[in-house]
């Protein structure tokens, strides 16, 4: 019965739907994106599955292409999501189960893949509230760490994430996965160089706090008033030298055991939640 | 010059050192461990590199075998470490550069691999202080997450980590790597079933706190006095039902954005540091 409803939905939209095979250029583009390559524009990303598509819709991203495999869809939720996607997507394609299984990274694909476009925020386009809290990632290398930090920043309510010295694209599949959809929502601004980011922050009256396990001040001893920037650095090499010029304050998360530091994703998350909790209680 | 010192060190200990090749049974054992298999005993682990070996020595683990490639060692630090390892190791083997390169996961191996033994703590062998803080991991699947949590527990000063419903061994190479050596130090106790762990905790007057993103009580609204157990669950399915029997309190870390929850490693770390900081300030 459900499948009949889906068929009727697709029939009603037949003029907008194209059935394509493995050798179609859209599939080639999709495979490149799913393998971590870049798309037409650097902000294109591919995501699979109902869960991620729900998040994309909630975040209101532009849906450039919707690829659906009707044979893989069995649930009412699937049909309802297909209906929403058909309204939102600029291009709609159906593929066979065989093609979907080749594209999918899963044992049992749920029939949905999408190409969406991340919103770009230039440094001027970003409008932040008073007493903003931003997280700066300097030279991070692991897509998983960056995704985890985005997830925590989304959760804590960090206003934006600023990136410098970054070779990982926000559209990297591992980053998207670790972010659990946060990459669709949290505003991200790129700075080629840390120096530029420092200037941006200081000209906007941000107090800058560097996470540094050797710092004297503990992270809970500080009153994070006004505009606050938390800065974490590369997994192995830490922060670029420029951050240690006068201005920023160093804060440490105490280490009581054998290890010298925390995982950078954990450290960033602890700091972000500390600022937010302190402000809500203060 | 340095190499001459190393040669003299090895010559002095010649009676204890065996030179072995790729087909020696010790190498077979080592490769199995490095690939995530289990050793003679379930607590054997293999670690590579000077950094990890320093941590092993500091933690005081039993060193069952030390495999050294003299041709790979160039620094004074390397020779000093070799000296310490020769004193501590029960068996010592030298291998050629070719063998070391085949064993190593690195571009440039630094010449050191070790088989050590993790300390086992039975539930009765574990002696904990007053107002102890323990972290309970219920059914976690990702070796990386477990390793990251151990690293945070080591940093925060958590007294022990209790494991239930766990299929990942503490000797898994990814876990060891993510733990940055914390797995060598933090006491870990296994419980086959969560029910057994609940009994262990309640009979010792632990107040149990479950991390649950749907909970009403925020994690900072609670006073973590007396013996405290923090419990986090499986990455996808959360906690076993038994935890929701009367007794434990649910605590949430507020989620202000698109995501429903934090990465489990991040959540565990935030909770652990919150308890420790609250106690130090209170």
UniProtKB/TrEMBL annotation, chains A, B:
Residues 40-113 form the MRM3-like substrate binding domain. Residues 133-273 form the tRNA/rRNA methyltransferase SpoU type domain. Keywords: Methyltransferase, Transferase. InterPro entries: MRM3-like_sub_bind, rRNA_Methyltransferase, SpoU_MeTrfase. Belongs to the class IV-like SAM-binding methyltransferase superfamily. RNA methyltransferase TrmH family. This is RNA methyltransferase.
